[in-house]
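Let us work through a complete example step by step.
Step 1: write down the sequence.
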Amino acid sequence: MELLKPSAANSSPLTPLTFLERASTAYSDCTSIVYNATSYTWSHTHRRCLQLASSIASLGIKRHDVVAVVAFNVPAMYELHFAVPMSGAILSTINTRLDARTVSVLLRHSESKLVFVDQSCRSLVVEAVSLFPIKIRPPVLILITDHDDDDVASPTTDFATTYEGMVENGDPGFEWVRPESEWDPMVLNYTSGTTSSPKGVVHCHRGLFIATVDSLIDWAVPKQPVYLWTLPMFHANGWSYTWGMAAVGGTNICLRKFDAPKIYGLIERHGVTHMCGAPVVLNMLLNSPQHKQPLKNPVQFLTAGAPPPATVLFGAESLGFVVSHGYGLTETAGLVVSCAWRRRWNSFPSSERAKLKARQGVRTIGMAQVDVVDPNTGRSVKPDGASLGEIAVKGSSVMLGYLKDPEATSFCMREKGRFYTGDVGVVHPDGYVEIRDRSKDVIISGGENVCSAEVESVVYSNPAVKEVAVVARKDKFWGETPCAFVSLKSGLDGNCPSEKEIMEFCRKRLPHYMAPKTVVFKEELPKTATGKIQKFLLRDIANSLL
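Step 2: predict the structure and record it as tokens.
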């Protein structure tokens, strides 16, 4: 057969920005965004993004310049996911919980030319910019005001103008800047901060297009869902559902801050159908006084970041949340492994279903390969559910690399064209992958490997426990021993378990070398904005204990 060559008609660069154009036609009068008393249609959102992109370009922002955003899940944050790359710039969303010094470092590392700042973050960003060396030109600051909120901010001399001012002054007929190549960078995301040294992850238009379509298919998202933003949009761009909601004409219910009673109210008022978040979000919903009554209609809840404890799964599903579990990283632009559910599993006992659902699962259709390999030989481990190895992935949504860090890029993509995740897992006989730990979180006690997630699962089964994190504590005899940080549920009325009782609880259910040798009670465990427990902080505390 004659081999034909591609032509201009079939070689348009893939980009998720085109989803907004289509939504403005296919779902023109359908609701796109709801936030307190504010609502827009998809035709409104398309026009606003074009106007904003026009104003960004008019400030002298050029193709591949970085434009940063420090904001919560407000309408502006959603619109900027389209408007910034439509101006030709690269979008960088920054964690709102970072301190001023770290924000300053990220802005300088990314060489951000422009920063959109949520009114609640204005003092944080102003301080971050004040830390710039005199010889480095600081970025221009744009203030995002929120007229639906009690804390209405007004522009100050630190800000060039307001977000709404830029929208109003922009050109709705702006010809947005399309990528020259689908490999052009589109976003710059810094890793979430569970380690002490965030890295700048660069994704291209092609990778994000495929990641978005992949995420919609894998979760079986229908047309026009009602999506509640409990997952921060700054975290891996909301697992690519920012662009995904435009693709399916969904309604984005924006939520500035996590508030369990308000979430239940929004679910009922707007008929929410889909939500995402770490297992801690489900746990917080379960521990809210509002959770006593089951939901009127089922709500699909996609969780990732840590294996959901069985008790949390039981509680969430008894309320009407239909929990799906997946796995991904900032470096993969969203979830690339999911626990594809088999119908026959529905007939299994609840404890067995929870155990199956806690597994990460199989690759999504957009991924070429997901494997668990021996980090020394690169060979696949035995599919026996016990042999440990590092999870390695290969596919279109894997990042281009780390910004200005070729050494780190080469290290994690060092062999056979795969991305080495740093997560330790096993492969079960049925081919499903299960994470056991981060490689740095494996505890080696007396020569035995202890998976902290396995210990945490047992501690979680204690009815008094709300949250737990297990880390290594240095030990002169054993090398390391497990140290459990435990947060207890409220309302125990003096029936709080002691440190010794928690340890004995675990010793009855685990090999003794795996049971915690130390238990520390804390009201709250330190977390990132996405709900991941910051174990590096807990390790420091554990090793400072006398």
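Step 3: interpret the result. The mean pLDDT is 90.
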